Amino acid sequence: MNEFVEMFSSTDPENISTSVKLLLLLTVLSLAPSILILMTCFTRILIVLSFVRTSLATQQMPPNQVLIGIALFLTFFIMAPTLQEVNEQALQPLFNEEISLEEAYEEAANPMKEFMAKHTRQKDLALFMNYAKMERPESVQDIPLTTLVPAFAISELKTAFQMGFMIFVPFLVIDMAVASVLMSMGMMMLPPVMISLPFKILLFVLVDGWYMIAHSLLEGFQ
Question: Per-domain residue ranges for the chain?
Answer without folding.
Answer: 145-222
